[in-house]
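Fold it.
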Amino acid sequence: MTAEGSRSDPTIERWSDVVSDLEVSLSDLESPRTLRQEIAWCESALRQLPKARQQLSDARPLGEVLVTLPSSLPLYSALLFGVSASLPGNAVRLRPSRKNVEVTRLLVEQVFHPIGLDITIANQGWAEFAASTPSPDGVLFTGSYDHAVELERRLSPHAVFAYQGGGNCAAVVSPGADLERAVATIVRDRCFNSGQDCLSTERIYVHEDIMSDFIERLLQESALRTASPDRREEADLHPLEHADRFRSRRQRALRNAIRVLADGAELSEGLFGLTVVESTPRSADVVIESYGPLLHVVAWGDEEELRRMLLRGTLALGITFWGELPTFGTLDFGQVSIDESLYEYEDFLAPFGGYRRSSFVRRSTACTTGPFWVPDAMSADRGSA
């Protein structure tokens, strides 16, 4: 970000002036590896911001928009959801999680207020936050699907309601796949932010002919992962924010597994190693987002069986294919990659989300599921995708 062309952009200059302070604030919230990746994504998004504003030069704002942020990746989440919602000209009230309020405020006040974006940070519980703007023109909500449905029912039918939810992303490993690369990528992605990210792989469908070789490689790679209770240390895994929820789902997965391949265990309060289980195709545990370092491995034999497996569950955010693509294609998954990580496609200008209960946008005329670009969803005349 020190190249001459980048420094000529005043937004980049303001970011460069404040990024060190942001990194210090984040160092108690994120691991060094997560922090570096988040900063890189923010810088990529900032480089694309002028193009985004140009694309939206004729957009009509909705008006007042409420935005809730997930608790992870506070800077990039603020860009992806809060800044994006403001780009059509909306007045955005942004609600980060309580632990992220100050770092989010620093980013918004130092980088985005000077370029005229109307964003107000709200340090409030949800009820107080919603009551502060009882009749918003739009709401962008990130959280549980059940909560989203409840909120959507309370809103005026004329308000736009956009939802980004869970992931439970899948990987399919077929004969002919580069197993070494597949295993290394899957384990790395599952450990990103200690598994607290909607886009990391949680369930792996492996062809029965290569299952033994795959598991051997998977366990070797998993054994290399390190854990530390100190977020300032270089390690793959750190204490979880929602440890109670993960603990319950991990214990259930262990009880219901065909076999436990690697018991990551709880190493200290809220700190878990990587757990790997072989699960049955019909196990409900496989299609529930665990939001922590847990991998389900499921064997498949023919394409029709695989297709039925992938159509189970309520989440269809992302899928990665390693090896030959099935003849039935990619089904209804919103984010798709072939022989590489889903994270390789991270793009501030691209629609994001999935189908089933992963994402939806409700307008007065229709409700649609699938990926959407936030500025389009939060504009009065640009549709929902």
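The CA atoms of residues 128 and 168 lie 31 Å apart.
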